[in-house]
Amino acid sequence: MTITERFLHYVSYDTQSSEDSGTTPSTSKQKDFAQVLKQELIDEGLQDVVLDDLGYLYATLPANTTKTVPTIGFIAHLDTSPDASGKNVRPRIIKNYDGGDITLDSGLVTSPAVFPELLSHKGEDLIVTDGTTLLGADDKAGIAEIVQAMVYLQQHPDIKHGTIRIAFNPDEEIGMGAHHFDVEHFGCEFAYTMDGSEVGEIEYENFNAASAKITIAGCSVHPGYAKGKMINAGRVATELVSMLPEDETPETTEGYEGFFHLTSISGGCEKAQLSFIIRDHDREYFESRKTEMLDVVQAINDKYGKIAEIDIRDQYYNMREMVEPKMYIIDIAHEAIQQAGMTPKVKAIRGGTDGAQLSFRGLPCPNIFAGGINFHGPHEFVPIQSMEKAMMTVVNICRITAEKLGK
Description:
The chain is an alpha+beta fold and 407 residues long. It has helices spanning 3-10, 28-43, 137-155, 183-186, 233-242, 283-304, 320-323, 328-339, 354-359, 384-405; strands spanning 47-51, 57-61, 72-77, 92-94, 102-103, 109-110, 126-128, 164-169, 190-196, 201-205, 208-217, 259-267, 271-280, 308-316, 345-348, 367-369, 381-383. The chain has an eight-stranded mixed beta sheet with strand order 1-2-8-3-9-16-10-15. Strands 12-13-11-14 form a four-stranded antiparallel beta sheet, covered by helices on one side.
């Protein structure tokens, strides 16, 4: 089976996760797909194939060298985003893309005028959607690349490697993918998530992240007689938002710049609720942002009396501080990407990954490209050549690890 055939088979399964579920996995169809993958891994000759009750699938490719080599791992997620339907995905392959507009079956047009990244893949073979669903390259491309790499290593026993562990987890798209990941059972010194985008990308920095939920209790009085009595919670909520820096939002920042992001606001005169996410790559700035949010709430309370309450909760931290003590992990990925014919591109993630949470649980876990582009919507596509390069990057990492760290 080719990597293309494998990927097309995987995207035929709807594995959309749900933010409204209280179960793990959040949707049973993720575990249905995991059952299919479990049998496939067994059929492909992997060992110790285990699917636990929560939908986490683990497997092993045994070492084929007499050297003592650190056990390493590769991870991808089973679910697709709740942002767009993943049901009845109907992919189409565009051979030798000519650099022009792509008219999808629905009539939707994916144009390089809007998506200039298309032009980087002129002459390649693109897998696109029919315009009614997402594609699912996030992260079924990653799954296909990892499985194909394990098959390739078995077909090429001359490539020496240590013990390789692979894992596929549910619910990454709703931020729950690492919560029940069994790091001890996985048993790796380090690992890589295959969940990035463009070819050559290596990511080992991400945002520090917190959520902030604010409740404002107003005082509702007949508007005709409200002077000196009414406190309009909805209006106070907008006042609170205006007190935060207007040039520190997602719409006005890029690169390493952090932000305050108002994700929802609701309510009326009597009560209002606001939800924010707080992000910054720098831990010191991150802490100061949380303090600034507390100060804004305090200012509201100083002005109106104690009407506002805030609950701030940390969500994840920048994995850089956990990866930097083992920078050889990045060096290995850098060399593996070069040997697969690409220029490595180290970039910071303006978001988070399962790898960030796993890194703080003792498993340093940077992120590597999987090749898909325009995730989470009908304009998503993946070049077949990008998947092939990602697969060879996995193979190269396994080989280089044995060569450089084997004893």
